[in-house]
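Q: I'm a student working through a structural biology exercise. My instructor gave each of us a protein and asked us to get a predicted structure, then write a short paragraph describing it. Mine is Class II aldolase/adducin family protein. I'm not confident about reading structure output yet, so if you can add a plain explanation after the tokens, that would really help. Here is the sequence I was given:
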Amino acid sequence: MKAQSTKAALVQQVVSFTRRCFDKGYFNTFRGEISIKSEGYFIVNRPEIPRFDIAEQDVSTFDIYTGEILENGIRFPVNVHRVIYERRSDIDCVFYAPLASLPFLSSEAGEIQIAFTEETSVMLKNIKRIPYQKSNSLSLAETVRDACVDTDIIIIDNLGVVVLGPSPAIAYYKLELLDAVAKLNVFHRGGVLPKLKFIRTK
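A: Happy to help. First, here is the predicted structure for Class II aldolase/adducin family protein. I'll explain a few features afterward.
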């Protein structure tokens, strides 16, 4: 009974944060996923959900080791989520978002200088950028697996961003901060420290 109540609570968190991401414009009707890990499995919403219409039946449960679907029967690729949980035992939540403001960041490797607090600098440190690959493909998953070793934020060129966190609340907070940095970068040129460095992977 306790396991069932825990899983139900995780499903509600996925539904709640998905609605919040739609409301903020972080997700669109073509892409946007949130997964939360538990003991031996993770729960994730299906992509391509009509705006604000997400419900419990749109959330599926997958085996964390094999990627096989365990509950709900809605099958979709979850390669990126699974490899992150495989590689990072300290991560319990992954946001995979198109984030419309990302084009405001330079497409080239470099530094963004924005006047932010020290806390923001810590939360967004060591942002990595990787080349475009098809969404949720095996090749993208392998690239993300390598990139996530020492970062919680991975920007995928012309696709979106993957944000990792020890909880949904912290991962969502990082997504909010990144969105703010992207938008403020339009107005700030040559700002002050802290510097948010992009590291392009090979």
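A: Here are two points you could use in your paragraph. The longest helix spans residues 2-24. The radius of gyration is 16 Å. It's a good idea to check both against the output above yourself.
Q: Great, thank you!
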